[in-house]
Design goal:
Layout (H helix, E strand, L loop, with lengths): L2 H15 L3 E7 L10 E6 L3 H19 L5 E3 L6 E6 L2 E6 L1 H7 L1 H4 L4 E5 L4
Parallel strand pairs: 2-5
Antiparallel strand pairs: 1-2, 1-6, 3-4, 4-5
Length: 119
């Protein structure tokens, strides 16, 4: 397992730990001129759940992969929070914001992997 895969696994576990839903991993490694290699997209049902998912991802990546995000943006209203791990960008949405921005369709050439919800 390489560093990116380890990081993705920790991010996924952090999301699942706070009951984040509809996790999608977009593999952008085969696409030229992207800002990162992977997008991880998920959602929480409320601003407080979105914030809890972000905190959980921070904890899991720090402990499990020894990595901290370079930047986190969007926590003030917690409708769409982006976490920047350089090669991996994590997007935690409220359902309405996720439907509106529909990031999955922006990268039509990306390989998308859906992670089943835990419950």
């Amino acid at each position: 397992m390489n560093e990116a895969q380890k990081l993705i696994q920790q991010i996924t576990e952090g999301i699942q730990d706070k009951k984040g839903k509809k996790i999608v991993i977009a593999d952008l490694t085969k696409i030229e001129d992207t800002i990162c290699n992977y997008f991880i997209i998920c959602q929480g049902n409320s601003p407080s759940q979105v914030t809890a998912i972000v905190e959980s991802v921070k904890d899991f990546t720090r402990k499990g992969a020894h990595v901290k995000p370079y930047a986190i943006d969007g926590l003030r209203n917690a409708e769409w929070v982006a976490m920047d791990y350089a090669d991996v960008l994590v997007h935690v949405f409220l359902p309405e914001a996720r439907d509106f921005y529909n990031l999955e369709t922006l990268w039509a050439d990306a390989k998308l992997t859906s992670i089943p919800d835990l419950d």
